[in-house]
Amino acid sequence: MEIGWKRKAEELVDHALAEDWAWGDVTTQALIPAEAEGKASFIAKSAGVVAGIEVVHLVFARVDLSLEFRALLHDGDKLQRGTEIATVEGKVGSILRGERVALNFLQRLSGIATETSRYVEAVRGTKARIVDTRKTTPGLRFLEKYAVRAGGGQNHRVHLGDGILIKDNHLAALRARGIDLKAAIDLARKNAPHTLKIEVEVTTVEEAGEAIESGADIIMLDNMSVEEMRRAVKSIGGRVLVEASGGVTLDNVRSVAETGVDLISVGALTHSVKSLDISLELEPSAK
Asked: Which domain holds residue 241?
């Protein structure tokens, strides 16, 4: 784990533990002797792809450094029902204090990785790459986009400073001031760092042509039908990267990929994904 990655993950873990009042667990304090020890195992209750093992390790390290954590898999590995993912051994009270936070992270991130892997598999054999969006849980974008990568996908912009994406509302605001698309792209080139590419959202084949002629580096085909996308890709002719966005589901993603687009952005990877069913099963020591 890179130092910067670990520091950011620690911040998120600390926030989650504080939110759960992990050090004020009155149930554990009232019922579990301080000397009680045991071993707990993370068990997959359904098939999928795991993500977040290192985050779980961090959770227990922040709760109690004496706990012994052992990862049995790596992020990105496939799971079957009953697969043992990791174990944590030591004081039962400490394990219980970190249990819910650890499971929340592991289930959520594994759910994202699992859903991403389904989309990646659905477009296998085409040139299309599956990418995420900024439709993430507030505060968890860093980890959720990591989970997309664990599932075989790639990241679109991580934040607003990551690239220029001129969308319909930007253009509406500019046109009210008499600024057309070409002038908008020129303005972006003049005022933004030269290292950033300029992507333009379009809704018709004609707008796609206009965006290219105006100097766009990437064209986003927004909420177009498969036939419209096919026509747009043909008219663009490989001059720039083409991204499909809006209304993409597992049912139609293969058809979208077969239009010849380079990228397919899918908000559903993060904004409405179902957490993977994982449990923590405790075996108290007989001591």
From this structure: 120-271
| Residue 222 annotated in active site | yes
Q: What gap in Å lies between CA 48 and CA 186, rounded to an integer?
A: 46
Other Cβ atoms within 10 Å of 29 Cβ, number? 12
Domain co-membership, 125 together with 256: yes
pTM assigned to the model: 0.94
> Does the annotation count 6 as an active-site position?
no
213 is catalytic: no
**How many domains does the chain contain in total?**
2
Q: Residue 2 — pLDDT band, cuts 50, 70, 90? A: low
Give me the catalytic one of 25, 54, 144, 222. 222
Q: Determine whether 25 is an active site residue.
A: no
In angstroms, rounded to a whole number, what is the distance separating the alpha carbons of residues 33 and 36?
5
Largest pairwise CA distance in the chain:
78
Q: What is the pLDDT of residues 48-72, one digit of tens each?
A: 999 999 999 999 999 999 999 999 9
Catalytic annotation present for 258: no
The answer to whether the beta carbons of residues 86 and 63 sit under 8 Å apart is: no
Q: How far apart are the C-alpha atoms of 145 and 42, rounded to whole Å?
A: 23
Q: Which one of 201, 207, 243, 262 is the catalytic residue? A: 201
